[in-house]
Amino acid sequence: MTTYGEARAEALRLTTARLSKAPAICGTRDGQENSGTTVIFFDGSCPLCRTEINAYGRRNGGGQLRLVDVSAENVVLPQGLSRDQANARFHVLSREGRLISGAAAFVEVWNQLPSLRWAAWLSSHRGTFFMLESAYRLFLLIRPRLVRLFVFAQGRFGRPPQRDSLQGPLDQ
């Protein structure tokens, strides 16, 4: 049976396979670099994604995270990550410069936020990481329908967060 450490290492290897040529920084249109922060790449045109990122932004009191909206016109992505890839799957550039996607990316974010470290710890238990990645892949299949449902529900019961309501440092 595969241990969590082996599974996570394999997931990181698969999601970072193209990083051998990639720089350990993420630039933006104004030349900012990844200076010891975890960079989250998110689809700012997706109201469901904005809600998730807003939740992380509210917990980002220490500035551990930098939020990069990949739907912005002038965003510069790290080598090895295209706009289509960033829109299709959750990606994070770790403090160490590793590009991570999927469940491993969520665990990386949770590790950076003290209020969510329990979730990172929980994912370290045998089998949990596999369940997280499987659930995330299922979510990706039904995401378009969930977004439509989310927009409908927000229209009836409230408004989705707007781009300008995102918390935390935001690069567009």
Helix content: 40-55%
Provide the structure class. Answer: alpha/beta
**Which strand order do you get reading across the main beta sheet?**
4-3-1-2-5
Beta strands, count? 5
Count of alpha and pi helical runs: 6
Structure overview:
The protein has a five-stranded mixed sheet with strand order 4-3-1-2-5. With 172 residues, it is an alpha/beta fold. The radius of gyration is 16 Å and the shape is globular. A hairpin with a 5-residue loop joins β3 (91-93) and β4 (99-101). Helix content is 45%, strand content 10%. The protein has one domain. The model is unreliable at 11-32 (pLDDT under 50). It contains six helices and five strands; from the N terminus they run αβαβαββαααβ.
Task: Give a quick summary of the entry.
The chain is of the alpha/beta class and 172 residues long. Helices cover 45% and strands 10% of the residues.
Features:
alpha/beta, 172 residues, 5 strands, 45% helix
Secondary-structure map:
Elements: H1 4-15, E1 38-42, H2 47-58, E2 65-69, H3 83-88, E3 91-93, E4 99-101, H4 103-112, H5 117-123, H6 128-157, E5 170-171
